[in-house]
Amino acid sequence: MKGRVRFVAICAGIAAIAVSACSIAPTTAATTLYDFGPANGGAALIAAPITVRVQAPPWLNATGIVYRLEYRDPAQIASYRDSRWAAPPAELLAERMRQHAARGSRAPHGAGLRVEVEVEEFCQAFSTPERSRAVVRVRAALVDLASGRVLRQRAFAVEVDADSADAAGGAHALARAAEQTIESLLSWVAAD
C-alpha cells in the first residue's frame, strides 16, 4: 500500500512539474495582423456624402491572406497560416475608400451617390517560388441614390510586384495595389 501511495505521489509531482513547465515554455509564434497602413496624403478626389458598399466572394470574406501558386495550379487558392488581415479585404477596401472620400473637395452629380464595388480577385500570385505579385481586380458601379439608377460601370485591375515571396511581401504589395485601385476608382467617380 505504501508503495502505491508513493507511486501516486511521484506521478502527481511529475504532472505538476510538467504543467508548470508548459506555462513557462515559449509559445509558438503569434499570428501577424496586417492592414493597409496609414492613409496616404494623396489628393482629395470627391466629397461626402458618398456611400460605399464593397462585396467579395465567399472565399475572400475571411481574414486570411490569400495566395495562388500559379506555377503549380492557378486554380488553387491557399492562405498563410500565421498571417492575417485585421479585417476581411472588402472591409479594409471600404474603410480606405471612405477615408479618401471624407478628404474630398467636390462631388459630381450633386450629393447622394453610392459606389458599389465587387471584389473579383485580391491575392498574392506566385509565378515562381521566388517571385510574386499582388493582384487586385474589382468591378465598380456608380449609383444615384435618389433614382436608384446606375450612372456608369467599370472594371479595375492592378498588379504590383511583391518585395519578398512571403506573407509580409504579399500584404505590403496588396496594400499598395489596393491604394492604386482606390485612387483610380475615385478619380473615375469624380470625373464629370
Which regions are unreliable across 5 or more consecutive residues at pLDDT < 50? 7-28, 105-109
The CATH topology annotation reads as Rossmann fold
Count of DSSP H/I helices: 3
Q: What is the top-level CATH class?
A: Alpha Beta
Structural class: alpha/beta
Q: Number of folding domains?
A: 1
Strand content: 25-35%
Helicity, as a percent range: 25-40%
Shape: elongated
The major β-sheet equals: 7 strands, mixed
Distance between the termini: 93 Å
Just name the CATH architecture.
3-Layer(aba) Sandwich
| The CATH H-level homologous superfamily | ABC-type transport auxiliary lipoprotein component
**How would you spell out the order of helices and strands?**
HEEEEHEEEH
Would you spell out the secondary-structure blueprint of this structure?
Blueprint: H1 2-24, E1 32-34, E2 50-55, E3 64-69, E4 77-85, H2 89-102, E5 113-128, E6 131-144, E7 150-161, H3 167-190
Parallel strand pairs: 1-4, 2-5, 3-5
Antiparallel strand pairs: 3-4, 5-6, 6-7
Helix pairs in contact: 2-3
Architecture overview:
The protein has about 190 residues and is of the alpha/beta class. It has one domain (about 30-190): Rossmann fold. It has helices at about 1-25, 90-100, 165-190, and strands at about 30-35, 50-55, 65-70, 75-85, 115-130, 130-145, 150-160. Strands 1, 2, 3, 4, 5, 6 and 7 form a seven-stranded mixed β-sheet that branches. Strand 6 and strand 7 (about 150-160) form a beta hairpin. The termini are far apart.
